[in-house]
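This is your field. Have a critical look at the following sequence-structure pair:

***
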Amino acid sequence: MTSRPFRVRSIVVLTAAVGTLLVPGTAHAGGSTSLSIDATVAVSGTPKPYRLHLHASHFGTLVNTVSVQLTRTATTGNKPTVFTDYTASDSTVHCAPDLSSCELDTGTHMGGYGRIHLTFHATAAAKSRNDLCNKTGEVLSRTTTRKGTLTGSLAVDTLTDYFKKVTNKNTPVHVPHVLNATAQKFTSFNRNCPGGGPLPCTGFLQLSGSWLSADSSLVLGRPLPSGAGRISLFQPFASGVDDLSLTHGVLGTAPGGFLKVTDDAPQLQQVHADFDAFAPFVTGEADFRAQTPLRPVPGDDCNGRQRTGKLFADDVTMHYEGYGDQPMFGSQDKAFKVSRFPA
């Protein structure tokens, strides 16, 4: 199996928890509109069953990206999901005002990793939904969606023996030539809506931080005293192409016992994380050890407290199928933070 060594990128990758995307934008008096096109399909030809998710985003001149994720959800244990994401910035993404047609094109921004140039054609009427303010009845935002298909050319060369070159043609690893897709237009009218008061305080324990550099991030969280917790792990590495970001990651849920405070005198002195709960994609155990005094969580009204410290993770390994194993090792001093609500 061919694998490529990991290298830390100098560009910080912004991600949201559990696979959703954060789309930055600039609000203005007349409102703001963003566009997206999404398609998810099974991949044929890989040793284990993977899915391909394509996501294109447009928001003025700030966001014009085309992303492809290769994902697999385990069939054993707590069934976590592993993914590899290829995102080309400065792409072309535009749609007709009624979402009857769209075009997305990475151009040369994927370098030697390929190119994606697809056209969306609507096959159903558009559907719109308004989000209303309960207090005033004003429309806060409008979401319009339209079903259709994507046709054209898709080619992602992973440079691995496992995934090879993923195309929508007749190649060893491929997806269908025609992809069922959904185009969406979201318009925010930037109107204030009076709130309904503070949310109730609930118990929660969270461990978060970065290892190796600010580019690699980990968030573990669980409700207190019991309930299912979550992992969000993102690890970018260098693509060698200025406009192409590559990120591996693991997302999933598991019974909350994988994250425990093992030394609470003083409070949150040591926290233990059992990553075997997210096997087969992450294995091993790690310990957080606090290096700073206990402090209130800024802006929190639920008596939350936090400490920063170091993560010791010599036993933890991420298993990225097709790309090889990657040890976590641990973090630098004060690179991780543990928070508990209420304290």
Notes: DSSP finds no helices and 24 strands in the chain. Confidence is low (pLDDT under 50) at residues 1-29. The two ends are 48 Å apart (CA to CA).
